[in-house]
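dude i think i finally got it to work??
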Amino acid sequence: MTTTAADSASVPGSGQATSGAAPEPVDENVWLEEIYGEEQLAWVKEQNSRTEDLLEDADYAYLEGSILEVLDSTDRIAMVGKRGDWYYNFWKDRHNPKGLWRRTTWESYCTDSPEWDVLLDVDELAAAEGQEWVFHGATFLRPNAGEPYRLALLALSPDGGDANRYREFDVESRTFVDPAQGGFDLPTAKGNVSWLDADTLLVASTAEGLPKTASSYARTAVTLKRGAPLAGAPLLFEVPEQHMMAVVAHDSTPGYERTFAVDYIDFFNRKNLVLRDGEWVQIDVPTDVNVSAHREWLLFRPQQDWVVDGNTYPAGSLLACGFEDYLAGARGLAVLFTPDARTSLQSWSWTRNFLLLNLLKDVSSEIRVLDPSRPADGAGGAWASTLLDACPPLHDVNAYAVDDEDEAASDGGAGDDFWLVATGFTTPTTLMRGTLKRTTDGTNDVVSRHAEVKASPSFFADGDYEVQQHFAVSDDGTRVPYFQVAPRNLPLDGQNPTQLSGYGGFEVSRTPAYSGTVGRAWLERRTSMPAGADGDAPHSRGGVYVVANIRGGGEYGPAWHRAALQENRHKAYQDFAAVARDLMSRGVTSRERLGCVGGSNGGLLVGNMLTRYPELFGAVSCGVPLLDMRRYTRLSAGHSWIAEYGDPDVPEQWEYIRTFSPYHLLKDGVEYPETFIWTASSDDRVGPVQARKMAARMLAMGIPNVWFHEALEGGHAGASDNRQAAALQARSQHFLWKALAGGVG
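look at this
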């Protein structure tokens, strides 16, 4: 399978600095960095109780139930992935909170009530083994020609974190393959696993004493034979300790079998290697050029302008060359996509014979189909391109292959079939399926036909709301787009409770998406507004939901992302503040009615709104956040994000990092917004300690209306089942509503 994102990949402080390192500010809360210490968890439970007493009233109970009804709805689309003749799905609902891994046939899937063959009940497994397993996916062994898919490695997390235990599973017998009989069972650890053949795995792992990088990921990869211990497996690949991680994978496409390794130097730089005659051969590209392979093709997406044989290919473009030709030294690159000021490439996906490009034009989707067999007229080696007519304005539509390793449609297979998933803020998600074919009239044009397969129900009165796109102007004159979802005929009197959401990092794009949770928990909530001074009668007021497309994200490609890296991080925060001001200047809201929400890097974003722009917001909901930017590289996986934020141990870099480290920007005598900080003990990506320390410092400073909550499981998502997710979302939404439409405390 070769569906590829454009750019993906998800300690004590003494106050003394080591020689040559930036000085460390005194940290009175370093004791909270011991995640599972008895005293630390006692502090967490005390804060949880305090927050639950504040928030968990009758309105909260109704809200949580309403959100859970959305998450547990049996009318949701059960998204599937095809393997062989079966369509696989993982499903959670009220009766199966940990979920069912199941499959069905295509004919059954197309009915209103598919017949599901349940392969694994995770709730039953958790009860039988006394472990709160969280299902993180399955990796199948490609069978021999004519045989069905049977063996898979299941990734199971004991607490919802990023570390997984990989266990071999037989889908025909519906049982794990017994390790005593040679079944693969890898201890819980961070890493990745790939099948080489029926009796061999390629394993990058931190288990059994295998070395870690400074970012806490696997530093080595080994070749593991069936029945052999992981600890003594032969070394296959290794990266330096200061690099981010090692990844290995085997492409089992018949006729194109290849083993790859990736040395992730940091989040945006990597070395790509292919195994040839027992030796690793590096693919000769700059480390910031993303590389992917499909059959006879290599694709390249540079993060910065790339000069090859005197030709300059701009950042964010997509290029192609024959795989073997490129390794042999050829550099004649076909230009498949070139970005412009409004349009960026978000991802691409190969069917067997065609390439699907998912683009954004001013944050609205556009999809193009490319045919490698047919050159574009006068385009210097580019492939012929056809626009796929499936993208309404202000919507997010993504196309990806159903099964690129199947036979082509002309041979009775689904190899050139594709999925279309379409959604918008007021448009419930729709799943369509289509087929790409070349015409037989001699032109060889590509035609596509697609039809609806499933549609999600409406979970709120979405027809009552209007989606608009606006542009704010940031401090340096940059136009920053944002989406506004609001009741039709919105009164522009500054009194609408408004929730502003953003992310602005790691080239992640925030696109239109339907959310029954946001609809019910925010848009449809109502508060009574008193009579106005001009004699207006009391009236009901609903919520406004806003998504900001600030720099640091990927909405306009790599340049949009790089504009807010490291010493330019402040531009992301200036963009977000500009959107807040624009909402006020347009009369949508006011400081006392405007709240912001963000998680992870978005938590760092709203942490900076709290400390750098407190005059703009009445409330802040800050989730699973980075906040202590002096010590973030020493906490959980923080070292892996130096390329994004900079290295605080380097004095010159700490000088700019300190300007966006919320933990160090708190000051006495400032009127801060009402603040809710939430996290999870089992988050092994960002970790809970930065949230703990920020809340503790604010409380110790006597800042009023500061609240903290920490889920004891759920990983970086903060929840491992629908009930936990409903509680998490209800707490954040209810806090913001109370703060902006009523008052907390």
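Confidence is low (pLDDT under 50) at residues 1-17.
im so relieved honestly
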